[in-house]
Amino acid sequence: MILRYAVLIIAALVLTPSILISQGVTTGSITGTIKGKSGSVSSALPGAMIRAVHVATGSVYGAVSKNKGQFLIRGLRPGTYTVAISCVGYKTDTVRGVNVDVGESSTVNLILAEAASTGSEITVSVDRDGLFDGSKNGSGSVIGEAVISASPSINRSISDLARMNPYTNQVSTAGSDGLQGVSIMGVNSRFNNFQIDGAVANDVFALGSAGTAGSQANSNFVSLDAIERIRVNVSPYDIRQSGFTGGLVNAITRGGTNTFNGSVFVFGRNQDLVGNSPDAAARPFDKFYDVQFGGRVGGPIVKDKLFFHLTAEGRQRSTPLEVSLDDPSALNNFAMSSAVLDKIIEITKNQYGYDPGSYGVTNIRNNSTSLIARFDYNIDESNKVQLRHNFTYGIQDRNLLRNNLNYSLTSRMNTFESINNQTVLQWNARINESMSNEFRVSYTQTNDRRILPSNQTGQAIAFPEVRIQVGAGMNVILGPERSSQANALDQTLIAITDDFTWFLGDHTITLGTHNEFSLFNNLFIQDYFGSIQYSSVDAFADSTANYYRVSYANTDVTNGNPMPRASWSMAQFGGYVQDEWQIDDRLRVVGGLRLDIPVFWDTPYENAAFAAAFPGRSTSQVPTGVMLFSPRIGFNYDISGDKTLQLRGGSGLFTGRVAAVWLSNQYSNTGMDLYRAELGANNSPNSINSADGTPMKWDLTRPALRPGDSAYPGSAINTTAINITDGNFSLPQVWRSTLATDVKIARDVTLTVEGMYGKFLNQVDYANLNLRQSNMRYISSSDTSVGLSPLDGRKMYAGGTADSLVDRRFTQVILLRSRDGGQQYSISTQLKFDSNNEFVPGLSGMASYTYGRTQDLNSSTAATAGSQWTSTDAIDPNNVTVGISNFDQLHRIAFNATYAHTWTAGYSTSIGLFYSGSSGRPYSISYAQDYNGDNASGGNDLVYIPRAEDYNTKVVIPKPTDASDLRSPDQIWAQIMELVESNPILKSYQGQILPRNALREPWINQLDVRIAQDIPGFSDHKIQFTLDVQNFLNLLSRSWGLQRFVDFQSSNLFGLVLNSQNKPFDSQGRLMMSYTEPVTNGQAGIYTTDNFYSRWRMQLGVRYSF
Amino acid sequence: MIRNYLLSCACFVAFLASSCSDGVITFPTPDPAQVRIVNVTQNVAVTRVVFDSTIIVDAQRGKASDYVQVAAGRPLQFTLGSPAKVFRSNLRYTLGGSARVILFARGDTNGLVEFRREIQDTLISAQSPEALIRFTHMAENVDKAYFVEVWSNGARLMSQEYEPGISSPSYTPIKPGKYDFEIREAGTTNVLTKLSNVSITNGQSYMLYTYDAVAGTIDNITLDIF
Fold first, then answer.
1. Residue A444 Cα distances to A203, A214, A375, angstroms
2. How far is CA A530 from its chain centroid?
3. CB count, 10 Å around CB of A287?
4. Predicted TM-score of the model (pTM)
5. Model ipTM?
6. What does pLDDT average to over chain A?
7. Which residue in B2, B74, B89 is closest to A1084 by CB distance?
8. Which of A244, A451, A787, B93 is at a distance of 20 to 30 A from A77, taking alpha carbons?
9. CA A616, A619, A620, A623: dihedral to nearest 10 degrees?
10. Dihedral sign, CA of B201, B202, B206, B208?
11. Chain A residues 421-480 with CB within 8 Å of chain B
12. In whole angstroms, what separates CA A1068 from the centre of its chain?
């Protein structure tokens, strides 16, 4: 038997492939020591039988105590247990109400009395507090069923619960009602590991920001009704838990019990349950609805043997996109007359025969359906099997970009469809008194696609994305969004996990393997129908464009397929060993070593021309076989000896994951299967004009022009972007150490002080290899600082000049690589109180203050390699330095509490609230223009903070060329100095480059409340009415609860004046600056007040439980 | 002991929280600028300019409004029209701190246009024994009055000739007293319009301006001062 298991484990370890590491723990355990009392002497009692019965299901688990009386029962379904201990010659005893939580170990210590003795001399010690569980060493928390049901949540998402952990912060998509991801320890949610029952439920490709599967369509992967517990782990030193450098969120689903029960519910809201806009106009929300409905039922199929639990949930939502036209009083205003848009619509219809759609308030449709079925089968006392299937279908209208600079007509919109299926099989087995095994296999299939507006035959209408400039930086956009024109993704994930445990008394050995396979089939051809830009409405009417892009297949390589997909697969093998050593009654130490090895099964196309141009680099090189070791050690020491004061901690490496899209970029950008043409760009060798130099007329009724077409400018050459991955690229890791102390300061009141420090290894990092350093001398011909900024010494590139690129056949050549760098540290104080506390009985919750700092190289907020490279504001984008993370938390005060009061039998009122007060997000200041010639659009160059003495020596202010700017250079300089010297951070960096993310958005207060009223039904049925209020503070006062942010966490506060060579220096090498106090959405300043999250929102609900 | 521990924690939190707002930029506001509106339109009885959606300035035809304070240092959005209708929106200036701007509104009810001048009225000290005067030719329907000269008390006051709306006037010193101002066709003694018995006070600057007396008539111009 043992041999069979050993063979199974080794086979799994060696033969099974995998993808991205991620695994978790889905069960709990009971441990303890059994002693026998003979006279007045107590001694260890080996051979005692321990039977633990899961009260709800009658499931039985057993163990036999070892030589020193120790026992361990693993693989327990979370819940309440009755533990019976028997031993020949001693009185049998039963301990009731032993709570077992996921990933935790409950302790039951007993001293049995001799059978011949009289009276009750049994001594029982049961620890029901997971915090004082001897196996707890790192940082983590469990959110139980009671908290889940009582806490406020409108989106009914797991992140609304996970945010209660002190190290988390919800990451919202500004201005939308979308799902919010959870940043943990100041790290992008993409680096979290999100699981359902220990099975991967991440958005593995990671195009969305929420980080969960299905979140791209703004749908929950699993109904909150199906969730029984949520575990948030930040530094678990249990070697089995891995796959993150942020944190691990593991949601445990409900299972059936011996009792039939269930409920049906409906939650709803509309525009009358949303506050007015947070501006002077105080406008009511436009027509809106959001309905969530569903139910769950569970029970026995065969009593004590076989159970089922089913949950179904649907959601129908229609949310207005509120951006006004030519209405200065509106918070979100596109300052352009509707007559301009009418003119564009008329031209598009009459001249190009295309219906561009409409303007005005447009509602975004967002529907979802989720089904989950779980079956639990107790084969016998030693074998338990769980089978779960989860199905999610979601659609959401997307890409209707509207803000103060861009206004899309509805033809730009498409519908994102996401279908997710996941099947998980878990088998928990007790092999003998000392050995047990947990095996889990999961199969996950995700199919995403974008449905474009189609013609009568169902074919997507082939029309380019058209961008028409209608004002300074203002564009009207129509036609299918350029990244959606050919975009679909199919993912298949298979994960196999096996944990073998060998209990040796003082030592518990775990030997395990976790392996994942990933198969991706990605269609992504940006500008498949083309994208084209016009400098004015007149130019649009005249068909003379100023910028054109198209991508198309090289059918010689793709075997005639015009829409080739990047089809590739990878695996990740993981194996680990761990020893949990109970040194004595007070001290437990755990140590383990884990090895992960990613393997790529497929290689991208080899581009010989690229390899020749960039020696040592290859488009077909993939980082396969890089071994990653993760040693960890943790401890728990019961200082007081009675579990009222403990010291715990640990240190170890956690190997994380990367968004698959970052790896997939290489497969989609080899320059072999897809060609890209670009006309009219600043640094493109290709002019958009006709061969004779006259403006070319573009006929948008024809298919997108490509090189080789007769109408295509004859001198144009093919260019392409290249994405490659360094051969030594490794998955990111963090070496995270924890030291904490917990003290019980009163009954059911615990104070924790916890500190953590982490060091990042193998951070995701990018470089554009096609950039050439400038050879310019800025001050004089004798200037020795060739290619360096004369102001601050930063490296200058040759952008803006004719020979700015290493090889003009390529646009960006983006290298994905790993670099060590960055750190995180935090200190947190947490006060936990349970409902049995002596101060306010019935009140439970936690209050915490956390100070945290996270510094990284690249916060990885984008999907494409080019955006990943440019989205990090830097001094040198090819050698970014460590800076504050975009997700850095700094200060956070969190408070959550639930309180229930029963009026009379069956009539009870409960209140749940959650408060989070936190520092605003960090942001950078970069120049709007290209300072260093790196050709990066959007402004990624960090600013130099001038000093008073720099005026006219190192910095000059040219007289504004804008006729409406009546200020003198002296007045502008005075404004700059007043600004710089008024802010402590800016002032401290005078004469230097302001580091990335040095500034903060304003402090954010959020208070959410839930009130629930229970009314008894017949029998033991119950009706519950609920009211959820999000941003309750805004309900109290219109000026409270405002959430203000800086777009993309980067402000182009200072401008540059470029010379004829597109450089920001005058002939004396002085920086030519400009500055105007910014106006955002019609208000002075750089902060946008979120038009959605700044309002209070309510949701009403009713639930019938039986 | 627990109490001391909690107190220490509270002090620590307060210390850390005290630095919460360091990185939050609040923009210092330059001293406000001032703007005055002059209605030199053909036929709009009252022009209305609305700054930042909140500050409303009205001017009767041919007259100038008082100065109003507006924000400086950032783009100042404004609309131009009458109390009944907005003729132009999305207009903007960026003004320096303490700047003074005179905004001439021209055109007619079919389309108002704005014409700007940056005028530093504070150039002269209130204790100066002299005054300053400048001239802007804002009449539009002109033939003989296309080039004009400014005379006062029978003498040429300013040496240059003025074109409608284009010339950027400079200040000319003028002694306090009573004046009769004349606008003459350039190079002739033909007086097109005049303004009599104007009191000029020391330490102040003045703007003399013309505009069309009656819409649609040629060389029918009138003269005013503020």
1. 11, 12, 18
2. 31
3. 12
4. 0.88
5. 0.84
6. 90
7. B74
8. A244
9. 70
10. positive
11. 471
12. 47
